[in-house]
Amino acid sequence: MDQLVAFVSEQWMLFAALVFILVMLANSFISTWGVKNVGPNEAIALINRQDGIVLDVRTDDEYNAGHIVNSVHIPVGLLSQRIGELSKHKSQPIVVTCRTGNRSATACSMLRKQGFDPIYRLAGGVTAWQSANLPLAKGK
């Protein structure tokens, strides 16, 4: 135990970096509890068989460049103010997507806290959708 205390006191910056990384990892796992990652084919099944909706949380420019047909567009930065627009879908499956899947984790956490269920995250985002050769609509 004395060695640990000595190490921490001598290498406090290294130890602080380790603690920071561990906290960030824990936050990442906690924020997506109750959210299942799905691939493009699973997302299609949710949309077609369970009346699921797609929530696209990318910027306006990204959305206009190409988005999943019939997706609801609310940029992640505006989601907390516009979450009421999704209230009628509270018990429907919601597939959240962004470009690669990072921003969608934040949106999933916000939806979860507001009682939305079930929530799914499109693993790989619109990039994975395109890689699966699935269509995108352009414009608004």
Verbal overview:
- The protein has 140 residues and is α/β, with parallel strands linked by helices.
- The chain has 2 domains: 1-31; 35-131, 3-Layer(aba) Sandwich (Oxidized Rhodanese, domain 1).
- 49% of the residues lie in helices and 13% in strands.
- The chain has 7 helices and 5 strands.
- It has helices at 2-10, 12-31, 40-50, 60-65, 79-82, 102-113, 125-131, and strands spanning 35-38, 53-56, 72-73, 94-97, 119-122.
- The chain has a 5-stranded parallel beta sheet.
- Strand 2, helix 4 (60-65) and strand 3 form a beta-alpha-beta unit.
- It is elongated.
- The chain starts with a helix and ends in a 9-residue tail after the last helix.
- The model has no long low-confidence stretch (mean pLDDT 88).
Short description:
This protein is of the alpha/beta class. Helices cover 49% and strands 13% of the residues. It folds into two domains: 1-31; 35-131, Rhodanese-like domain (Oxidized Rhodanese, domain 1).
Helix-strand blueprint:
Blueprint: H1 2-10, H2 12-31, E1 35-38, H3 40-50, E2 53-56, H4 60-65, E3 72-73, H5 79-82, E4 94-97, H6 102-113, E5 119-122, H7 125-131
Parallel strand pairs: 1-5, 2-3, 2-4, 4-5
What do the pLDDT scores average to? 88
Report the CATH architecture of the largest domain: 3-Layer(aba) Sandwich
Evaluate the radius of gyration. 19 Å
Low-confidence stretches at least 5 residues in length (pLDDT < 50)?
none
> Which strands sit side by side, in order, in the main sheet?
1-5-4-2-3
**Whole-number count of domains:** 2
* Apparent shape: elongated
How would you classify the quaternary structure?
A: single chain
Helicity level: 40-55%
Major sheet size, sense and barrel closure:
5 strands, parallel
Structural class: alpha/beta
The CATH top-level class label of the largest domain: Alpha Beta
- Under CATH, the topology of the largest domain can be stated as Oxidized Rhodanese, domain 1
